[in-house]
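yo

u said u wanted the structure for the complex thing, so here. seqs first:
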Amino acid sequence: MNLDLQQVEDAAKALYIRALKVLPPDVKSGFAALQKTETDRTAQSILGTMVTNIKVAEDTDNLLCQDTGLPIYNVTVGRNVSFDGSALKAALVRGCTRATREHPLRSSVVHPLTRKNEHTSCGPGIPVIHFDFVDTPDVVDIEMIPKGSGSENNSFLRMAIPAEGQAAIKQFVIDCVIAAGGKTCPPTIVGVGVGGTSDLCIHLAKKAATRPLGSVCADAAGAALERELSEAVNLLGIGPQGLGGDSTAFAVHIEIAATHITMNPVAVNMQCHSARRARATLTPTGITYGF
Amino acid sequence: MAHYELTMPVSETQARALRVNDTVTLQTTLYGIRDASYIALFDKGRHTRFDLNGHAVIHTAPNVKKVPVSAEHPAGYAPVCIGTTTSDRMERFTRALMTQTGVRFIVGKGGMREGSLAAFGEIGGAYLAIIGGTAALETTWVEQIEDVDLDDLNPESLWKFRIRNFGPLLVAMDSHGGSLYTEVNAKVATNRAAALARLGLTV
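structre next:
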């Protein structure tokens, strides 16, 4: 399969807009689950308004949240696909720029020192582009995540040591959720990275925070810790918007990587209740959009 | 727990009438402010031609569309999506905002801290919590972008919105020392031990 880069550019544009407007079904189900268990009246009312907003966004073809976020494109490439990698990256940048200018969207992206906004949602290193490779032949999958800043500003890393054990991981997660309070737009998906190098650990946390609700850590020990922490964070009483209640998080997700004998790193990255993502699958027969 | 319909601007007495857990719906005018516009006004000494006295500001930078100036779009901008950002980042500006411009209400999400609570008490104001991430809904409460100032900061300009039935908003911090965030934080500090115990940890 020869990758059509015009198709990639068009998809990069369509994905950004789609992600901002239509919440994935697993997140909608997450709201329904919380509405069944929430015991606080204010919290119930807030969850109800969030669900109403999802419908208003769909009915009015509008963005769910005004924060267009930092754009992230995760590209997964199958076997027998040929393309010019550098041109592929440029196509994603063009698509991201076009979404911003043609919809139009608020460009939330500035130079980190001059704070200049180019009104393209792009800049040095942005959009974030990740590549991965899979065995499936003749397919390219592009996942787009507009990562909101309310949740992204609450990102944490701790280089714990082996003598502190899993207790350090558990306590860190609880204390990060407390520190974030209402600032992350709870209910959140709490992403936890365990192991790796410091940078990989943070990347794992982001991967965990942006995983679909209902998905489970592929590692058995990670999955067990995920269940334990999911229950514990919802005992804190932070609640939707930090105004109290049971629904602090939809779930805690964990991603793991092996680490050094001297290390026990843990990172936390959160996803707000507007847990937006969109997916395009490109095959020789065309393109399909999903989540 | 009373509900107030408030046509902006309001007096100090009206602002002081609000108590936490009351709800408020705002009418006529709302100003948009956030990081860059706060920095411009209170760190860099820039001035605005807007009279914010007695008004409410919302922590926002909207998605807008540039359009020709018309009766419908007097500022040359049509609203696309208008929502609310996290207020905590703007904490240190509250007192200056209230004393230098006369603003009475801050509409935001996630809450503010002790410094803001003290300013609301001393000067007479309140924090009105909106539900973050519900911008599609909020946009339906905005009739028009009436005016814009400091637009070189776009999208973090100082925006003047014409609003209709903007709310209900929850009074989450009042001028009587009441703060729902302080209440929740105290409960969370207690609940922390229970959460850690559930994880098999002792504190």
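The two ends of chain B are 38 Å apart (CA to CA). Chain B touches chain A through 51 residues (CB under 8 Å).
cya
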